[in-house]
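In the previous chapter we treated chains in isolation. Here, by contrast, the input contains two separate entities that must be folded as one system, with a combined length of 675 residues.
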Amino acid sequence: MTADSPQPPPAEELAPLVYDELRRLAAAYMRRERPGQTLQATALVHEAYLRLAGAGTPWHDERHFVGIAARSMRQILVERARARGAQKRWAELDRVSMTDALAVAADPAGTLPALDEALTRLEEIDPEQARIVELRYFAGLSIEETADALGISPATVKRRWALARAWLFRDLSGPA
Amino acid sequence: MTSDQRRRVRDLFEAALDRDPPAGAGSWIAREAADDPVVRDEVLSLVEHHSRAGAFLSHPIVEQAADLLLDEEPLAPGASIGAYTIVREIGRGGMGRVYLASDGRLGRTVALKALAPHLTRDPSQRARLRREARAAAALTHPGICTVYALEEVSGELYIATEFVDGHTLAEEIRSGPRPSAGVVLQTAQDLAAALASAHASGVIHRDLKPDNVMRSRDGRLKILDFGLARMDEAGPGAGHREGGRVPYVTQPGVVIGTPAYMAPEQINGLAVDARADVFAFGVLLYEFACGAHPFEGSSQLAVMARVLESDARPIAARCPALSGGVADVISRCLKKAPAERFGSAAELVGALKAAGDAGSAASPHATWWRVHQIVIAMLHIVAATLAWQIKEWIETPLTIAIFLALGAAATIAPVLRGHLVFTEVMNRPHLARERRRTGRATLLLDLVTGVLLFIDAGMIAGTRALPAVFALSLAIGIVMASIVLEPATTAAAFGSDGS
């Protein structure tokens, strides 16, 4: 991301590394986790960074890594949700109509493929908003951490995040 | 929208959110973007959706669906789990992977379900699984897959059950042709009997669906996975537990089940009883009979919305082959209010038996209908024979043509009527449809035969009076039988709608 460093390998080459590490860490994490706790995505990403950075992988810095990790998380989770959905007849469909009452009962994993497709549409209009959603929703970063990773102000992240959520919610609510 | 317009939408949206107080944002936006209706409408729509989005995306996905990350490597064939040796993986479900395994101690083949770690981490969840395994192991019915053991091997939980070699009803629904009404009835009766046996032991399935019902190679049905069941408070032995109350093993408000098969009260997170299984049974049978879901929708959420708010698509319209009795049973299972459904699977068994009896016991009047069909078929043959005789007496182009026409009618009419009699005896539910298909042709054949015989009678009236009278009577007889008698015997045999 910074102009003076050597060109990093493209994201597609790095993603599998991140992918494997995140998967391994998540499995280990879930095993030792205490009941009632929830898995913190941020902690996972941070730990994956420390391990991979220690192994001499060519990241510029944690910021660069976090962006790739968020994207990898999106890929992993959406693929898994798709693989699972393929076994269920009712999860094959791409668009989700959402009412407030049902959103509560909805299985987030089941709606993930639809969200992924909506996010891809958003990406075409505004890549920055899509990055924010990846960092916030898939990597679990806070507003401040997201701002840091993208090099913009927290206030801007907060506004763009609100816009992205409204846009995605509308897109997923079906044709207006 | 141009990129300039997009930027303007973004800036206006963000400015609108920053406004204090937020009330009146609508008119502010309308003023700010008065020059560009496209931008104005887009901003208003986004602000409106922002206000409705609630908690949408506000919790990172990993916190809600951690198990998505836990896609464990499957156990390899030959691996040992305690006394079991893995043969191969045979399936995957919400609870974990299922393997075909051999039990070294008894030398038998079992299905070994490795419970997913996210289900077994919590000691209270482990306790719940143990209770459920115990409840399920108490069920002994040929229609229920037997639970052999709950095994704990190096911290992981495994459930060993009977191995059912066959296919699931889900596969049958997806691949097969639609089953006959007889198969639907038999399937319904077998399933209801197995459910009733479990309900009588105080065990509710709570996740009955086509994936959880297997048909073994010898054709028998087995319900799998009483894994989400809980001991019913009113169940036998309830008085001996914890001061007379059996604790709910699932918390009220926690939704458990497969969305497309959940009863309304289950979707709403309310306490459920045997009647939720009755609802799921209705959905399953509907889908099995018609190949389509009664609350079909474009997504899980749409299906759940229909389950909560709309009536099932009428089964009679979707699946006309089904007998009225079975269709009524299924429709009653799908009622929104549990009180309007059958109270238990035992009641369901009774209703299905009644529906089966009504379907198989042919009305005594059906005999008259059959006799009628056979007699008319024979009259057509007599008519053709008579036309041949008349042609022999007076050979003109007209009598030859009439003989040929009646000969053809004497072939077609008995085939059609024989087909109806066969359908009535062998495949009763399809009779109404077959009658509709052939009704016009049989009527037309009868009328044409009557008219042609009448003409033939006229041809010989001057020379041979007796055969002429016979031909005339036959013509009138066939026409009257077709117009007056047939509707009467049909109505007597099958009711006024003829079904």
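Chain A touches chain B through 63 residues (CB under 8 Å). Confidence is low (pLDDT under 50) at residues 1-5, 86-105 of chain A. Compare these points with the single-chain example from earlier in the chapter.
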